[in-house]
């Protein structure tokens, strides 16, 4: 990541999305720029996408397009599970996925477990439209390593949503079979896991690897696709595993007022182009 003047009075954020490709956004203000215990955290304001949170050089959320991602992360599982009551969000410290999860009246308790307290703090300070659900009485916000949290859990969740950073350092284990096995054990009989599985253009090995590892643990595994403009290439994937139910089937109403998700989008998201079918085998 670079924050550097381009012309006089102009600052730009460049995210290196692959070694050969960058996304550039003009910045009007740097709101926070710190090194946390775990990662570099930057919050900037931009004319194109509003406020943007960046971790270790990778864009995590922008005010303008976050709904495309958070609605898919939450509603693909919560509209397919017959009665989601207890939900765990792994990562997701910006609060966007939690906000969408708590739009479902069936949900009695939602845990958000993010390793980095500073991400949660930045979300509260600068992204009120994302962090707004953190004070909901059904929300439990825990700053801790989700790998540890899940190790001690047994059959207590209906849905686990893995809203993590890219698979490096302390997040790498969140994309691997031992973690998926712990999630499997933490899920009730009709349980679902949803994982953000990156882009088939910038990170084909992550998409294929995550699906292979999910298949080692879950009897039903499907991949869904969606648009996410500021994530690498804009073409995003969501890996979903269940203990038996078909995640492509819609079983519950969508919350009112969604801007990306709908039942039509749900069904269409599981229709994969042939190149992606062969990528995941
Ligand atoms: N989906 C977004 C993306 O792809 O850019 C990620 C948004 S969310 C801010 C990612 C969060 O995962 C970060 O706040 C990071 O601290 C958290 N995270 C990474 N590894 C973790 C772990 N082992 N336990 C809990 N949270 C973790």
From TrEMBL:
Q: Has UniProt tagged this entry with the keyword Calcium? A: no
User: Cross-referenced Pfam families, in alphabetical order?
Assistant: Spermine_synt_N (PF17284), Spermine_synth (PF01564)
Give the binding site residues for S-methyl-5'-thioadenosine.
39, 114, 145-146
GO cellular component terms, A-Z = cytosol
**Subunit-structure text:** Homodimer or homotetramer.
Matching HAMAP family, A to Z? Spermidine_synth (MF_00198)
Question: This protein is called what?
Answer: Polyamine aminopropyltransferase
Biological source species: Thermanaerovibrio acidaminovorans (strain ATCC 49978 / DSM 6589 / Su883)
Whichever gene encodes this chain, its name is: speE
């Amino acid at each position: 990541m670079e924050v550097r003047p381009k012309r006089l009075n102009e600052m730009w954020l460049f995210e290196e999305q692959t070694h050969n490709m960058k996304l550039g956004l003009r910045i009007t203000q740097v709101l926070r720029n710190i090194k946390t215990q775990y990662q570099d955290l930057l919050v900037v304001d931009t004319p194109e996408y509003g406020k943007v949170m960046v971790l270790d050089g990778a864009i995590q959320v922008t005010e303008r397009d976050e709904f495309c991602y958070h609605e898919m992360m939450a509603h693909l599982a919560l509209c397919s599970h017959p009665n989601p009551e207890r939900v765990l969000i792994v990562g997701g410290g910006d609060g966007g996925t939690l906000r969408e999860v708590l739009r479902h009246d069936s949900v009695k308790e939602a845990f958000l477990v993010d390793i980095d307290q500073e991400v949660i703090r930045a979300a509260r300070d600068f992204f009120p439209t994302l962090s707004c659900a953190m004070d909901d009485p059904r929300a439990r916000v825990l700053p801790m390593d989700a790998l540890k949290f899940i190790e001690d859990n047994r059959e207590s969740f209906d849905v686990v949503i893995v809203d993590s950073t890219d698979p490096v350092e302390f997040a790498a284990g969140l994309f691997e079979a031992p973690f998926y096995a712990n999630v499997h054990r933490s899920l009730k009989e009709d349980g679902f896991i949803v994982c953000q599985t990156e882009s088939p253009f910038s990170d084909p090995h992550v998409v294929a690897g995550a699906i292979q590892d999910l298949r080692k643990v879950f009897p039903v595994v499907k991949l869904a696709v969606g648009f996410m403009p500021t994530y690498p290439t804009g073409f995003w994937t969501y890996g979903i595993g269940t203990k038996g139910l078909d995640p492509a089937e819609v079983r519950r109403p969508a919350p009112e007022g969604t801007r990306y998700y709908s039942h039509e989008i749900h069904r269409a998201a599981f229709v994969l182009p042939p190149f992606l079918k062969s990528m995941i085998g």
